[in-house]
Amino acid sequence: MKITFDWLKDHLKTNLKEKNLLDQLTNIGLEVESVDSLSADNGLFKVAEIIKTEKHPNADRLKVCEVNIGENEIKKVVCGAKNAKEGLLTIYAPPGATIPKTKMKLVIAKIRGVTSYGMLCSESELNLSEESEGIIELPKGYKKNIGKSYFSQSKSHLIDLSITPNRPDCLGIRGIARDLAASGFGRLVDLKEKKINSKNKHTLKVKIKKEKNQGCTAFGSCLITNVKNSESPKWLKDKLISVGQKPISAIVDVTNYVMLDMNRPLHAYDADKINDGIIIRNSKLGEEFKALDNKNYKLESGMCVISDSKGVLGLGGIIGGTRSGTEFHTNNVLLESAYFEPGSIRNTAKKLNLDTDAKFRFERGIDPLSIEDGLNKAARLIKEICGGEISKVDIQKIEPYKIKKIIFKPNIFEKISGFKISLKEMIEILENLGFGIKKDKKFLKLSVPSWRPDISQEVDIVEELVRISGYEKIKYIEPIKQRKKSTLNKYQKLFHFLQRSVASKGYLEAITWSFSDQRYNDYFRDAKKEIKIINPISSELGVLRNSIFSNLIMYTNKNLDRGFKDLSIFEIGPIFNGSNPGEQNTVVCGLSAGKKSRLSWIEKERNVDVFDVKRDVIQTLVEAGYDSQKFFIDSKTPNYYHPGKSGRLFLNNEKNQIAAYFGEIHPNILKQIDIKTESLVGFEIFMDNLKLPEKTLNDLKVKFSFSDYQKSERDFAFIVNKDVNAQDLINSISSIDESLVKDVKVFDVYQGDNIPENQKSIAISVTIQSFEKTLNETDLEQINNLIIKTVENKTGAKIRS
Amino acid sequence: MSDLKKIKDEFLSKLREKLDISEINQIKSDLFGKSGLISIEFKKIGTIAESERKKFASDLNIIKDELQDLINSKMKDIESAEINKKLEKEKIDITLPERSFVRGKIHPVSQTIDEISSIFSEIGFSVEEGPDVENEYNNFTALNTPENHPARDMHDTFYLDEKKQKLLRTHTSPVQIRTMLKDKPPFKIIAPGRTYRSDSDQTHSPMFHQVEGLHIDKNINMGHLKGCLNYFIKEFFEVDKIKMRFRPSHFPFTEPSAEVDIGYEMKDGKIIIGEGNQWLEILGCGMVHPNVLKNVKVDPIKFQGYAFGIGIDRLAMLKYGINDLRAFFDCDYRWLNHFGFDPLDVPTNYRGLSR
Question: Counting beta carbons within 10 angstroms of the beta carbon of residue A570, is it exposed (0 to 12), middle (13 to 18) or buried (19 or more)?
């Protein structure tokens, strides 16, 4: 909402300065978004006439214009606008002027070899509208203003307020003035619109059709006959220009003025173009009309339209139609002042993708009791400017407006705000805001002003009182440092632990969007359902990610392009399995590319490989408190991993839930993504599948046992079939006697000479130690034999002699 | 001059000369070998008259110790000289680079979430979470934002179905609803997490992070809200004093509602929080609307309290001097390395939030 202090003063008597005003507006919840100097150094923007145009010698699209800027001064200006032509009245900005939109200061400049002294402006450049096509075309009446400033010479700044959606009343200057006055910033000027006491009959019949979901509950109108539409007088033009509106014609300008002044949207019809009266009804499917934005709209059924016997004239409360629009030669005007239901307005505007000033106001709620005042004010102004006679006012209603009542218990104020104000103060504030008040012993009986649709219960009254008495009155109550419940639950602790644990292993934490490129997502979707976003921000971000890999691999590729060769990144966050709330899992996903020890004088260079990520996964889980002795690993992995160089990990051999996958990314994917790196390995830890360890770390620490008896190490080499897993050998040895077998290590795996084809040799070192005694040779021999026998039986291995 | 004295003087003078290891070994054997001079003297002890025996034995032992110590120290000197000589040959260029070590980093948003949790933990808040995909009811309707409410315009929502029943949550406020439906009052929670709005430009990212706060109990009023946020801001920016401004605003799910600005100034292109007379909006808050409490079956006559929502990314930007929001999610290795935190730097109350 754009306002000026000058305009406010029409409604507000105050001695305070603009600086105080800005603070006060923000203090009462009418946030000042910006203060524009547009109207401060605006003396520079002058009305000018193009007297000659020539094609630019060096550029097809540019013209060199000779512009009369007053007092016979001619300036040469290079201009790119298509509509620049001889005789056009427009606005000229000289060198030194700052263009409001771009904040650029103009200088004398050579444009393609031709010196341009200043610039001709478009509406958008002057922040008058969004219109950036062509330069401003001023009506003929401006000819007498050539050389004069286009903007009024007011010292008032353009103040842009951000009005919250609950305050439609402050979409009018008067509403803002009322709030300011209530807060002690001056006195609200009493402006009772005088009733029109006309004897002229209103000859156009208006009917609101009673049907289901009728969006219009009241429709007031009057006729103004024999008008002579013209340009608006200077005061009106200046007023509109001062808040960034473009004057059009007196009739339209008056309706805009009343809308801005008292938040009362009006619509003016050329009464002669209405056939047999007005009917407000629901639209029928397929009805069409051409709106004032020069677009054709095809309507769905049930939209609130203003129509005549020939069809739709306009969309009530949103936009009028060209068929009945007023023009300079309009003789008879029908002025409309109606109430439309916010929900109806919103539905229609949304379906048609339409946004207008009127729609913005009606969907927030217009004062239903402002119908007559609006008509009175506008009709009188039109008569003043354009002459003519005003008819009687006709108001059709299908529902009477009921004043809202609230019983307010004053003590609730302190209960919520935490501070006190006197009852007298409360009453004063509420009265100034327009509330009707009846005092009772224990409470106040309040009538809510009709312009405040946002107020419906006691707490709303509390807000009004706190807001107007000032938020700075709220005390600071120091929080008590006391904790009754632990801050994080066990899973949250696990989340934070995994996050830092993985980072400590050389991975940079990334946070990527929860959505992904469908193409990339498909590579890592496996058997999961694709979840589309109906209205994505771009087609590259069209699906919720089924895996974190899709984003990580894309960004890894970007980083490789930046020249990094060896990089490890990870993310901990959600992946999605379905489009219902909760169909998501928390995953820790890491990706490592390139080599270890590249170009090192001391260490051997090698590609990152599956055993790097396997270590990172296992070490992370061990640090998180899981027992690696119990882990079970097999090679069944989703199709985005290298089928021979990847594994899945279970926390135990019951194999209930997959704790993690790790491995090389499938070479086909690398090829399709066109990612160039020596090696790319990754892992996924599924946090939701990690059953919390039964014992806390503290529990484990309680029992401390160790043996001081001598340890023995024994080496074995087994020949096994190629497809036998090392894990099977290790597990069968470990399981022989947990109190004796302390450690099992694979120190060599060999295939080739001396080993039969399809077989391999696995060399294992076993550490044996007793809690009870130093084992003698006989004991050890017994254990050795047991190890060999067990392994041979369980895995079909043969000890290598 | 007795024999003993003679032996002593002779060998002391011999040992004073420069000797190699074999010469010393020779001397050792001359003295202490089977037929060494000292060994022979020891054998004599039994033959010496009772009256002199004691003195003789004592003198002999003193001489033995003296010579032995000297030999030992001589040998040590030679050994260490030899080792030093060997080590001299092993000398390397110690300025060569060390073995590489790579530690990862924690993303500034994660670090900031930990900082926030740490601060609120101290005053008794616990952490709650909710899903990223929400239903329309939890995200809007239950929060007193019925369909066709203009406030919905402020949230450009991503939808997952044509009926617009399932969506990506536009704020963390639905966690309020979930928490209150699940448990009984009092509630004292924060809920950090991902949030989504279909808005993308220099200052907006379609995904960003918020932390929700909710404190519902008997008699919690706006003073508690102000005190809590003032405490939080001070702790977060690690300053003693903060300039803070509460101003009225509107959110459908709180009444009264406020937006909070903090004072700042620019010094040498750096933002200084807590001083100056510029205002920076950092959060929205208010007293939970009675309609919201009714929707989650909490009696608004008995219970009341406040809620707030803070943009986490924004806080991180302010605290750590990050200019571009989009960079948070761009995964630039250089950026992650520069703005990331060592995983060992866990924000805690006693050690402080940051170094």
Answer: buried
Residue tagged 């419940």 (tokens): A485
Measured at the alpha carbon of residue B264, what is the angle toward residues B258 and B269, in degrees to the nearest 5? 140
Whether chain A has a CB inside 8 Å of the CB on B184: the answer is no
Phi, psi of A367 (to 5 degrees): -60, 115
What pLDDT sits at residue A37? 63
Nearest one of A720, A799, A796 to A758, comparing CA atoms: A720
Using a CB–CB cutoff of 8 Å, tell me whether B270 touches chain A: no
User: d(Cα B271, Cα B268) in Å, to the nearest integer?
Assistant: 8
Q: Is the CB of residue B256 less than 8 Å away from at least one CB of chain A?
A: yes
Judged against a pLDDT cut of 60, whether residue A38 lies above it is answered with no
Q: Where are the domains of chain A?
A: 2-38+157-188, 42-145, 206-397, 405-470, 490-689, 705-799
Among chain A residues, the shortest Cα distance to B280 is held by: A33
- To the nearest whole Å, the CA of A363 is away from the closest chain B CA by 7
Give me the CATH code for the B108-339 domain, please. Answer: 3.30.930.10
Is the domain A2-38+157-188 a CATH 3.30.56.10 member?
A: yes
- Inter-chain touch B121–A28, beta carbons under 8 Å: no
Residues of A in Cβ contact (< 8 Å) with B106:
499-500, 503, 509
Q: Tell me the percentage of chain B whose pLDDT exceeds 70.
A: 98
Report the candidate in B62, B73, B76 with the shortest Cα–Cα distance to residue B7: B62
Tell me: the pLDDT tens digits for A597-645? 899 999 999 999 999 999 999 999 999 999 898 899 999 999 999 999 9
Query: Cβ contact (<8 Å) for B104 and A504?
Result: yes
A-B contacts (CB, under 8 Å): 264
Q: In 3-state terms, chain B is what percent helix, strand and coil (to 5)? A: 45, 25, 35
Sorted by where each begins, the domain ranges of chain B are 3-90, 108-339
B222–A459: do the CB atoms touch at under 8 Å?
no
Question: How far is residue A190's CA from residue A176's CA, in Å, rounded to a whole number?
Answer: 14
Q: Which residue of A166, A471, A581 is in closest CB contact with B250?
A: A166
- Spatial strand order of the sheet with A74-79 comes to A74-79, A63-68, A46-55, A89-93, A119-120
Is the CB of residue B126 less than 8 Å away from at least one CB of chain A? yes
Domain A490-689 of CATH type 3.30.70.20: no
Q: How far is A497 from chain B (nearest CA, A)?
A: 10
Of 3.30.1490.100, 3.50.40.10, 3.90.180.10, 1.10.10.10, which CATH number belongs to A206-397?
3.50.40.10
Count of helix runs (H) and strand runs (E) in chain B:
11, 10
| pLDDT tier for residue B60 given thresholds of 50, 70 and 90 | confident
A508-509 vs A567-576, strand pairing mode: parallel
Q: Which CATH number fits domain A405-470: 1.10.10.10, 3.40.50.720, 3.30.56.10, 3.10.20.70?
A: 3.30.56.10
Are B21 and B75 in contact by the 8 Å Cβ rule? The answer is yes
Q: Rounded to the nearest 5 degrees, what angle is found at the Cα of A393, between the Cα atoms of A390 and A399?
A: 160
CA distance to partner chain B, nearest, from residue A154 (Å): 27
Cβ of B100 within 8 Å of Cβ of A471? The answer is: no
Chain B hits for A508, CB-CB cut-off 8 Å, are 104-105, 333, 336-337, 340
Per-residue pLDDT tens digits for A218-275: 999 999 999 999 889 989 988 998 888 888 899 999 999 999 999 999 999 999 999 9
* CATH level 3 topology of A42-145: OB fold (Dihydrolipoamide Acetyltransferase, E2P) (2.40.50)
Q: Say whether A405-470 and A2-38+157-188 share the same fold.
A: yes
Q: What is the pTM of this model?
A: 0.86
Could you report the per-residue pLDDT of A518-558, keeping only the tens digit for each?
999 999 999 999 999 999 988 889 999 999 999 999 999 99
